[in-house]
Design goal:
Elements lengths: L2 E9 L5 E9 L1 E2 L5 E2 L7 E7 L4 E4 L5 E5 L3 E5 L5 E5 L3 E4 L7 E5 L5 E7 L2
């Protein structure tokens, strides 16, 4: 079965940010390829951050972050770190609690898309 991997960042009952790997199942739609079910979203934002970006924060709203270039290291409030590269998708849901740290891995401006939802 085909699926699409997304890494979720959420806060647990103690307010700590945590990682969870989730998969969106895909269905064979013939010549056009494999598709997931529709996901209702609200807005699309374009974003660029400077080379030295390194910030501790909560997500401003629930959103998918699609990395277009560069690489980002995400550190949870529990100290777990993962590096995400261009083409990878994050589902940011830690809108409350202790937050997470985002840090550019490369000394380059990084571009991403934010796709928000309720």
């Amino acid at each position: 079965m085909q699926s699409f991997k997304v890494t979720r960042v959420y806060n647990n009952a103690n307010g700590d940010s945590c990682f969870e790997d989730i998969e969106y199942p895909l269905t064979d739609k013939g010549p056009i390829g494999y598709l997931s079910e529709k996901v209702k979203v609200s807005n699309l934002l374009f974003r660029k951050v400077p080379p030295g970006y390194n910030d501790l924060h909560t997500a401003p709203q629930k959103q998918y972050v699609i990395l277009l270039d560069g690489a980002v290291e995400i550190e949870t409030s529990l100290g777990e770190k993962r590096i995400f590269n261009e083409g990878q998708i994050l589902l940011m849901e830690d809108t409350e609690g202790k937050g997470h740290r985002s840090k550019n891995v490369l000394p380059l401006e990084r571009s991403s898309l934010f796709v928000t939802f309720d």
